[in-house]
Write a structure and sequence with these properties.
The chain has helices spanning about 45-65, 95-100, 130-135, 145-160, 190-194; strands at about 5-10, 10-15, 30, 75-80, 105-110, 170-175, 180-185. With about 190 residues, it is α+β, with helices and mostly antiparallel strands. The protein has a five-stranded antiparallel sheet with strand order 1-2-3-5-4, covered by helices on one side. It has a two-stranded antiparallel sheet with strand order 6-7. Helix 1 (about 45-65) packs across helix 4 (about 145-160).
């Protein structure tokens, strides 16, 4: 299950359960829109605008707070291809509107990236569906302190740059057990609560 770090009117910032880029090479987060849709054109104009604000604030926050992204950039990638693969559950042919869920991947691109699939100036290389989990096992997720810094900066950017009222941003706190940011004021995140 993906770790929910932050939520606002524009959607939810999450640390995916299967990270596709190591934290040292730039890090990987995802942004879900404010409601589940199979295609971004299904969002209302206001939902699309608010989601765009969250995406931009999260990308800028990554660049602002992560030292490994000094001189780097962020790749924004909307995908959902693996959910349509014949072998993805449920096995068989897939109809996109029934199986695809829009989400945007934010990949920090570091000029000092050492992984051959994420070298600076090259397009990222992803594995075939059947090898995705084995391929991703080598990547470490962003650390709790890194995620907390991204969330704190994104909240400021949403308010100061994009005019989000405080009422449009859900409160967040750090889990007392794992120290990752979590939506709400609970002492423990959903992952640590069991």
């Amino acid at each position: 299950m993906s770790r929910r770090l932050f939520s606002c009117a524009g959607g939810t910032l999450v640390l995916p359960d299967m990270v596709l880029l190591d934290r040292a090479d730039g890090g990987h987060l995802c942004v879900d829109p404010p409601r589940q849709v199979w295609e971004r054109s299904e969002l209302s104009p206001m939902e699309l605008t608010q989601w765009s604000f969250l995406v931009a604030a999260a990308g800028a926050a990554l660049l602002d707070v992560l030292p490994q992204l000094a001189g780097g950039c962020v790749n924004y990638w909307e995908a959902g291809n693996w959910s349509l693969h014949h072998d993805a559950p449920p096995a068989g042919a897939k109809h996109a509107p029934s199986h695809r869920r829009v989400h945007l991947h934010l990949f920090g691109r570091s000029p000092t990236a050492g992984d051959a699939d994420w070298l600076w100036g090259e397009a990222p290389r992803f594995p075939p569906f059947a090898k995705r989990r084995e391929w991703a096992e080598r990547f470490a997720p962003l650390a709790a302190d890194e995620c907390a810094a991204v969330v704190a900066r994104a909240a400021v950017l949403l308010r100061d740059r994009y005019g989000a009222p405080q009422s449009a941003v859900a409160p967040w706190s750090r889990c007392a057990t794992c120290e990752y940011p979590t939506v709400g004021a609970a002492a423990r995140c959903l992952d640590c609560s069991g």
